[in-house]
Design a protein that fits this description.
single chain; alpha/beta; 3-stranded parallel β-sheet; 5 helices
Length: about 150
């Protein structure tokens, strides 16, 4: 978002969900490097992937490279506080009330990264709250976007 801010059409709002604020990143386990069986077991323990998917070898062969890439980005990311200025756009940060992966105290500090408005929303559930409460999430996003647009 900081890099995009220099473009002709910069972002108008940043929405983040179920992720630690980047300046609190710290050491993230190299889950993406786990052997297949251990990674599948870890995904199952996180509670967001149905066992029918985890037990389907062909499906997992397709999706595990994507999951590994996502987890690798998270593990390898290093926040650079000198890489750009503070954002001036609003940030809406979403977290779950019972997320063992990303506690609420790690989501609120997204507020430190903008001079614009900040809103923290907690949705009941675990790390995969977005899949379990998509309507609530979409209503919140629509509200935040609509509050930026003048009517008339």
């Amino acid at each position: 978002a900081r890099r995009l801010g220099d473009r002709a059409a910069p972002p108008v709002h940043l929405f983040v969900a179920a992720h630690v604020a980047p300046h609190l990143h710290g050491d993230v386990p190299a889950t993406h490097l786990l052997p297949r069986d251990e990674l599948v077991a870890r995904l199952g323990a996180m509670g967001g992937t149905p066992s029918a998917v985890l037990d389907n070898t062909a499906l997992m062969d397709h999706f595990l490279p994507i999951v590994r890439a996502d987890l690798g980005l998270c593990a390898d990311y290093v926040y650079d506080p000198t890489a750009g200025r503070f954002l001036t756009i609003p940030i809406s940060a979403f977290g779950a009330t019972s997320d063992p992966e990303v506690p609420v105290c790690a989501i609120g500090p997204w507020a430190d990264l903008t001079r614009g408005p900040f809103r923290l929303r907690l949705i009941p559930g675990n790390h995969f709250f977005a899949a379990r409460a998509p309507e609530q999430l979409m209503r919140a996003i629509e509200h935040d976007l609509a509050s930026r647009v003048p009517c008339g």
